[in-house]
Amino acid sequence: MNERLAALILRIDAIATDIIVPLRRKNINEAALLQLYEALDEAYLLIEHEKQIDRELAAILFLIYSQLVTQSNYVYDKSTFVPHIGKLQGYIRKIFGGTLQNA
């Protein structure tokens, strides 16, 4: 793994905390999610031709996604959760699907 990707994963990990802590109170941190999407765009550019994805990156994305889905099940109005769940699904498919197809 190159240094840029390692630094990016650390950044994504910090952003994950900014997303997950408010989620546990059923709140969406829009600013942190926008930062995550920006970081994921950058990550995709770094790894789009790789045959393997870093486990830490996969674990962080799974944690964020699963927390979004889980916490959305505990709110009456899911309208703030659904767009982010869909968008994160798209990024996961883009990052992991593209890599799997190249293998």
Explain the overall architecture.
With 103 residues, the protein is mostly helical. The protein is built from four helices and no strands. α1 (3-23) runs antiparallel to α2 (30-47), α1 runs parallel beside α3 and α2 (30-47) packs parallel to α4.
Keywords:
103 residues, mainly alpha, 4 helices, disordered C terminus
Whole-number average pLDDT?
88
Radius of gyration: 14 Å
| Estimated share of beta-strand residues | under 5%
Number of helices: 4
How many E-type strands? 0
Uncertain segments are: 99-103
Main sheet attributes: strand count, strand direction, barrel closure:
none
Give, in order, the helices and strands: HHHH
Rough outline: elongated
Question: How helix-rich are the residues, as a percent range?
Answer: over 70%
The end-to-end span amounts to: 17 Å
Query: Helix/strand/pairing class, anyone?
Result: mainly alpha
Write the layout of secondary structure elements.
Elements: H1 3-23, H2 30-47, H3 55-72, H4 82-102
Helix pairs in contact: 1-2, 1-3, 2-4, 3-4
Summarize it.
The protein is mainly alpha-helical.
